[in-house]
Amino acid sequence: MSSYVFFAQGAVGQVTTGRFTVGDTLPDILFSKVLNYEQGAATLSGLAKKKLIIDFWGKWCSSCIAAFPHLDEMLLRYRDRLLITTVTLDSAEDVEKLRQISIAVGASKMPFIVEDSILHKLIGPRMLPLQVWVDENRVIKGISLGREVNSVKIEEFISGDGDIRVDASTDHRKSDTSQILDSVKVYRSRKYYSTLRKENKAAYSSGMTVKRDILQLTESPIIELIRYAYRIKNIQWIKNASDGADAEAGIRLSFPGNYTYRLKLEYGPESFPFQELLMNDLRRSFGITGEVKREKKKYYVLKAQPEFVSANISLVNKSFPVSEILNDVLNVRNNTISVLGIKLEQYVNRDGGEYIGVVVDSRIANSYVDLQVPVKGNSLQQLNDALMRYELYLEPTKLEEDVLYIQY
After folding, report:
1. CA distance 244 to 371
2. Dihedral of CA 151/152/157/163: which sign?
3. 287, 312, 331 - which closes a domain
4. What is the SS3 assignment for 133?
5. In contact, 133 and 141? CB cutoff 8 Å
6. Which are the contacts of 329, defined by CB distance < 8 A and separation ≥ 6?
7. The domain boundary residue, chosen from 172, 200, 221
8. Number of CB atoms found within 10 A of residue 172's CB
9. Which range, of 2-6, 57-61, 301-305, 359-363, averages the lowest pLDDT?
10. In a domain, 139, yes or no
11. Considering its fold, how many domains does the chain have in total?
């Protein structure tokens, strides 16, 4: 068994568990069911007459489906020299159903290899989406996670004979999880141990555990450490104290990568000042300090007209939830109004400026909706004109929220 990742966005990690990796030659597999493909079946050698990118995905993977329009754009641009095909364990019936309700899947020009078992066993993807880059001789030239399918890498792939070039810092052979800070510390006469380790991975599985006298935040961005340190797990608004600007992107830029933080108290679990000690370590390691203030923020509340009727629950197919905004169309199918609220918040803030939150009336949050409406621009009136067809509307308001002003 091998475990590798190739050119994965400035970090590395275990993304495959199969036998085949970069430099190996894949067998000439027969794919008996290929949708959106004239012959209906294909061999790997037949697909790899051009350079080939194989995109692993699943019907449940919203980020996979969200990437389809970009993959189609790359396929169209390089169609004379490159083929991009998708592969999934899902059945042909399930993929056909998804093509009927998802704009991104239905409009795709890529072939869909379905009901695959062999390629998944050979590659063994641990996370999706994942791409395998294959040359005309079926040799694997690279394995990537999503964002590397761009014109720069594709040009390099098409024109080169060797493996896809990677920077030394992203080469799995040079992986380094250094920057480990592990020592006894004293804060306000209290002694404790803490470890802060910078991760160097392609993908993360963040989480938090608390066991009596130990706190651990695993593979978390700095922003999550800050949220926990200041007891603001639900806070939405984080500002840079120096200029009042939204600071979340700035934090990620200034402190790239994820961190694992472990805190152990020497004196037992009584009076557990987890946040206080983590706050101290953030000051010590990054120079980050913060202050929470209560402020009124602009929001839209998603409400329903009295005539609103939830989608018939017996007709909802929970196996095929869709939520997407593509080509100025908002498409939410087999999904809750809570999910609709998330997509609306993305839409109203797509042009930047002052961030506007969208909250959903709790009385309808878990109701199902099945809608596909055209949306142009991002004015309240335009959105409400589209939503009113479904007895829904957005109401502007101001809500009090905790705002964390950070200095670093």
Report:
1. 38
2. negative
3. 287
4. strand
5. yes
6. 103, 372, 373, 374, 375
7. 172
8. 22
9. 2-6
10. yes
11. 3
